[in-house]
Amino acid sequence: MNIIDGKGTSIAIQDELKLAVAERLKKGLKRPHLAAIIVGDNAGSRAYVGHKIKACEYVGFESTLIELPKSIDQKGLENEVQKLNSNPSVDGFIVQLPLPEHIDSQAILECVLPHKDVDGFHPINAGKLSLGLPGFSPATPSGIMELLRRYDIETEGKHAVILGRSAIVGTPMTLLLSRNADPGNCTVTMCHSRTQNLGEITRSADILIAAIGRAHFVTPDMIKPGAVVIDVGINRIADSSRKSGSRLTGDVAMHEISADWNGYITPVPGGVGPMTIAMLLTNTLDATPA
Ligand code: NDP
């Protein structure tokens, strides 16, 4: 079993970004500035945003965290987004999802100026991605592309199977892997909850990407020998051996795969998650005027 080390790769990218920031400052250019809006006190969201802010400190970006109460209404949140849109010091920003149920999340994402939308969730950036035009791509699929690139994994002509069709992972992943580029040029099959004969399809995958949010859904019998398996899932399961009583695990039953299996796999944690942060920072650097 070959492990694709997302954590190590993320640190390598962050070290490159640190150098790029130092170079910018030497030339008298602006320090990149990422802002994040968080609404309410969802523990998971707080942890994710905390990691992003910490990573900003590591690479030398300025960061701003805007914490808003769960009770904020649509108009109030849109005003906060507009403030960041018009703040020339902020190069890029994110609105951490999920938002409270009374908020129309899509309307909020559409308020973000596309050139500050470093999460790549605005319809203009999604449209550019589908047309193959330059713009911001969502960080998780971009991070997977970067792992494939840095691990020299051949993608041309390969059959990539993607489990999940969400706007933030499955759909952009399909677009990136099918692009006429390197990495890219895959023949892609995108699966979802209504797909029939799923195991038959996954067994034909040279590259299998699991992004459904179901712990250990992908079992060894669903994986082709020698395949590249990218596990995007983040699922919390009970674990009495931990002080917290739980731990994070992926969509792939990695513990059931034998050690002499000859493929490549990303672990959870330590695979795709850290790459998502590295690519968010990369997008922020790209959003900063040269
Ligand atoms: P969504 O819930 O938005 O989408 C899940 C997708 O999986 C849907 O398209 C759904 O199909 C499909 N699906 C659900 N059950 C099945 C099934 N039995 N067979 C086939 N397809 C199925 O999730 P996200 O895309 O936002 O996230 C997916 C996972 O990735 C989650 O665990 C999330 O936490 C994780 N994640 C990790 C990130 C990271 O940085 N590592 C970043 C983003 C997400 P349908 O459309 O038919 O409902």
Describe this structure in words.
This protein has helices spanning 6-26, 43-59, 74-85, 105-111, 123-131, 139-150, 170-178, 198-202, 272-287, and strands at residues 2-3, 33-39, 62-68, 92-95, 159-163, 187-191, 207-210, 228-231, 235-238, 246-249, 264-265. It has 290 residues and is α/β, with parallel strands linked by helices. The chain folds into two domains: 24-113, 3-Layer(aba) Sandwich (Rossmann fold), CATH 3.40.50; 139-273, Rossmann fold (3-Layer(aba) Sandwich), CATH 3.40.50.720. The strands form three sheets. It has a six-stranded parallel β-sheet with strand order 1-11-8-7-5-6. A three-stranded parallel β-sheet has the order 3-2-4, sandwiched between helices. A two-stranded antiparallel sheet has the order 9-10. Strand 2, helix 2 and strand 3 (62-68) form a beta-alpha-beta unit. The protein is globular. The model has no long low-confidence stretch (mean pLDDT 97). The structure holds NADPH dihydro-nicotinamide-adenine-dinucleotide phosphate.
